[in-house]
Amino acid sequence: MLKKLFSVFSFKNKIEKDELMIVDLRIVAIQNDSTGENNELNLNNEYIAIANKGNTTIDMTNWVLTDWRPGHQHIHKYTFQRYLDDCVLLRFSPGEHIILITGHGTDIYVHATDKNPPQIHLYWEKDSFVWNNCGDIACLYNNKGELVSKYTVP
Questions:
Q1: How many domains does the chain have?
Q2: What is the pLDDT of residues 55-103, one digit of tens each?
Q3: Contact criterion met (CB below 8 Å) for 79 and 63
C-alpha cells in the first residue's frame, strides 16, 4: 500500500534550462504541549512539522533532526532513513510536510485535504517527550552535516 502511495515521489535529475533548483526546507511548527496529562499515552500529540517550500524533491537519507539547548546540546537525535518500510524511498516533494511524531505508530503518507497539504507522518518511537515547553531549539541538518533550519520552541 505504501509503495503505491509513495510512487508519487519521483526524483528528477534533469533541470530545465531556465529553471533554478531551490532547496528550501523549514521547520515550521512544534506541537510540544499535548492536551491532558504528560504521560506516554499523549506522546503522539507531540510533533514537529517540516515543510518543503522549495521547487525540488529532496532525498532525506541521513538528514538529522536534533534538539538543542544551552548545556544540553543534541540530547535527542532523529536520523531520516532511506526507506520507510524497507521498500519505499523517502522523497520529500515540494509543498509536502513531514510530521515527525514523538511516540509510536506506523509511518504513512497522508494525501492533501482542503485544510492540509500532503503529509508524510513519521514516528520517532520515543517513550518520553522530546520538546520542552520553552527554550528548546530544533535543528535540521542535511546529510553533509550543514544546518538547514532551526526553530525555537516559544
A1: 1
A2: 999 989 899 999 987 776 668 999 998 766 655 567 889 999 999 999 9
A3: yes
Report the DSSP pairing between strands 97-101 and 91-92.
unpaired
- 48: domain CATH number is 2.60.40.1260
The answer to whether 118 and 95 are in contact (CB under 8 A) is yes
> pLDDT class for 5, splitting at 50, 70, 90?
very low
Residue pair 90/59 in contact (Cβ under 8 Å)? The answer is yes
Sequence letter at residue 88: V
Question: pTM for the complete prediction?
Answer: 0.79
12: helix, strand or coil: coil
Q: What angle do CA 61, 43, 135 make, to 5 degrees?
A: 80
Q: Is residue 2 part of a domain?
A: no
Establish if 100 belongs to a structural domain. yes
Nearest one of 95, 104, 100 to 43, comparing CA atoms: 104
